[in-house]
Each structure stands twice: as structure tokens, then as C-alpha cells.
Write a structure and sequence with these properties.
This protein is α/β, with parallel strands linked by helices. Helices cover 46% and strands 10% of the residues. β4, α4 and β5 form a beta-alpha-beta unit. α9 packs antiparallel against α15. The chain binds nicotinamide-adenine-dinucleotide. The site of nicotinamide-adenine-dinucleotide has 24 residues, from α1 and α4.
Amino acid sequence: MPESPTPPHALLSPPDQAAVAVIGAGAMGAGIAQVAAQAGHPVILVDAQPEAAERAVAGLRATFDKLVAKGKVTREDADATLGRVTPHTTADMMTIPAVALVIEAVVEHLDVKRAIFRQLESAQPSTTVLATNTSSLSIDDIVGEAGSGHDAALHGGTSPAMAHPERVLGLHFFNPPPLMRLVEVITGAASGADALDAASQLVRRWGKTPVRCTSTPGFIVNRVARPFYGEAQRMVAEGLADPATVDLALRGAGFRMGPFELTDLIGQDVNLAVGESVWRQTGEDPRYAPTDWQRELVREGRLGRKTGRGVFEYADGRPVDAEPDAALAEQLVGGPVQADPVARTLAMLVNEGVDLVHRGEASAEDVDTAMTLGTNYPHGPFAWLEQIGADTVRRQLAELDELYPGGRYRPSEAL
Ligand SMILES: NC(=O)c1ccc[n+]([C@@H]2O[C@H](COP(=O)([O-])OP(=O)(O)OC[C@H]3O[C@@H](n4cnc5c(N)ncnc54)[C@H](O)[C@@H]3O)[C@@H](O)[C@H]2O)c1
């Protein structure tokens, strides 16, 4: 292992002395490289595809040209930032110079990530913090022996455990990294407090808001948000309301977008894949069971805006058949919980948030911060709990549980 050129937690040295390597120059890697370079760090951008890193740097140049034209950045600052990003011409981890922090943002495949971290472990100094931007894999599966974490059985993996898992953690940025303030700092079972604290401080210096979470399926945002989509889909599948009316009701409760217009924007396939992943990783907990209704959309290729048709149909990027029934929305909201899109969704969001904290996976404050910054919700689950009251949420869940037994609507013990 090379000798450490810098003291522990070199990543808290002045930015110009703390180099960062970003592995994977796709959508997320390029954005993360931009964030780090704008904060003053020399950045090495690495990709397995020949010329992908150069292409990403060209993309950054185009982004900065636009920012300069809009007067948001000076030409001098733009050139200085771009000058700090160096595309690396090979994906051989042994050729990457010593850095203070590596952020891995390659394809979401456990075996690929496991292999990269094992190479990084021997290639980088012992003080280098090694972070993954994974959105769904367990840190423990990445660092551990095959079969040691919650997703190992699904993905397999043959390599041994890492020798120094204490410097490995998750830094889960949101898309697009330069604009999204939230970063989930993910604690693996073996992640060290020093590395976690240093990474959180660094992220804050970058103008982001870090929240802490254990390496639980979906982390905070992708887990707590599941019922926002799932309840709406169930209501429509049951014929209780149409998608445009459900969207209208939820916009009325302060959500920027309703669940159907939002999933059409994200892509029904992408949203379903996240749901399936959380469901499988929680041992097929009915709380996260994807709906046949959404699976059917995906089977039919109705993926959303990108295919011109999802829940709604689109012409020139606008939905053409998303007429809500305002009178129906008004009638449903405040009525029986089964057919009230707002009460049914909020009861489940509160239940998810409370249960996550009850299991010791994150703090209540971080859950509310994550949901407001990561998904643009008007409030977090704990703020809603304050407003609605635990008794009401419990009663609503009990009502739903009686209508739909099987565990989906079981209230958290902490309610
Ligand atoms: N896209 C999102 O909205 C989003 C949000 C948060 C987290 N993530 C996570 O970020 C990671 C990257 O996602 P993305 O959307 O940027 O993917 P992407 O497909 O746009 O980019 C991945 C890049 O990794 C490169 N790559 C693949 N194998 C490699 C290897 N062995 N060594 C070096 N480079 C390699 C590919 O050539 C590609 O350029 C994934 O883990 C994903 O789950 C994505």
C-alpha cells in the first residue's frame, strides 16, 4: 500500500490540497465532479469507456458556457473550475494518483462496485475515504464477504471482505448533483466515525446538506417515499379515483407534483425498479409491494414522457388527457380514508418515517430534512405527525388494515 502523503482526513485540508477522484463519468459522476471542482478541489474523472471522461468534461464545458452567458459565473471562474477537472485515460484503479476522497458512481452492479473497491483499497493510501454513490446497494455488501449483507443473496459476489471497511461509506447525491442540496451520508456496519464526520463536514463545505442514515434498503428518501406512489396507484387500480384527480388532490396538499405526473417524468420503469429493489431487499414486505397496475404500464412500454405515453399521453411535452375532476377531489379529501388521496398517503408517509427512526436508522430531524430537500415535499413525516396527531394516523391505518389485511398498513410500534 502506498505511504500516505497527507495526514488523516486529508479531505478536510484546504480544497486545493485535497484531491478527489470520481469513478464513473456518467450523469452522476460528471455532476459530482462539477460540484467538487467548483468547491476548489482538483478532480480526477475516471471511466471504463474510452473517451467517456473526456466527453463528460466537454459536457461540463458546455454547461459552464451557458452559466457564463447567463451571468451566473465569470469566464475566469468557469475556466479555473474546468482546469481543475482532469479526465483519466484508463479505468485501472492502480494508475489513479493518491487522493483524499474517491467517489464511485459507476453502474449499479454489486460485482462491479465490489471489484472497484478492492482495487481502490490497495491502490489508495490508508487515509483516503472511499465513498459510493449507490442508490440501492448495501455498503455492507460492497465491503463484506459474499452473503454478509442484505442484498448479497440477490447479486452474489465471490471476492473476500475488504481489509479496511472503516473508510468506506455512502455519499448518495441526488440528480442533478450541482442543483440538489441533499446528500445522504450512509453508514455501513463497519464505517468509521472519523470518516463519516469528515465526509459530512466536507459535503457541508460544498454547500450541501448532509443527513445520516444506516445502509438500510432505499436509505431515507427512496424508502420513505414509496407510499406516495403506491397508495395513489392502489386507489386508481381500485377505481376510487382517476390519476389526474389524485394528482390534483395531492397538489392541493402542497406537493409540487402529484404521484402520476411525477412518475411519468421520472420514468415508470425507473420508479418501478426502485420500488422492486426496496421490496426485495426488505424480504418482500407488503409495505413496499409494487402494484400490478404499474407493472402493466411498464410491460406496455408506457414509461412516461420519454415514450410519449405513460399514465397520461403527451404532445409537445405536455399531458393532453390529464383533466382532473375538481369536484370529486374536493369530495374525496376529508372523506373516508380509503378514498382520500391525501389522508391515505400522509398516514403511510408518517408511518414510514416514524418506523425508520424507530429502527434506529436515522434521526427524526434528518428524515424531515431528507424528504423536504430530496423530494421537495412541503413537509417531512414528523412535521405532518405533529399536525395530524398520532391517534388519527393510528386510526386511519387501522381502518386501512381492516379493509386490506396482510401487513401493508400495520402501524409502527412507535406510533
Ligand atoms: N441517475 C440518478 O438519478 C442517480 C441518483 C443517485 C445515485 N445514482 C447512482 O449513481 C451511480 C451512477 O449512475 P448514473 O446514472 O450516473 O449512471 P450512468 O450510466 O450515467 O454512468 C455510469 C458510468 O460508469 C461507467 N462505468 C461502468 N463500469 C465502470 C468501471 N468498472 N470503471 C469505471 N467506470 C465504469 C460507465 O461507462 C458510465 O459512464 C449508480 O450507482 C446509480 O445507482 C444515480
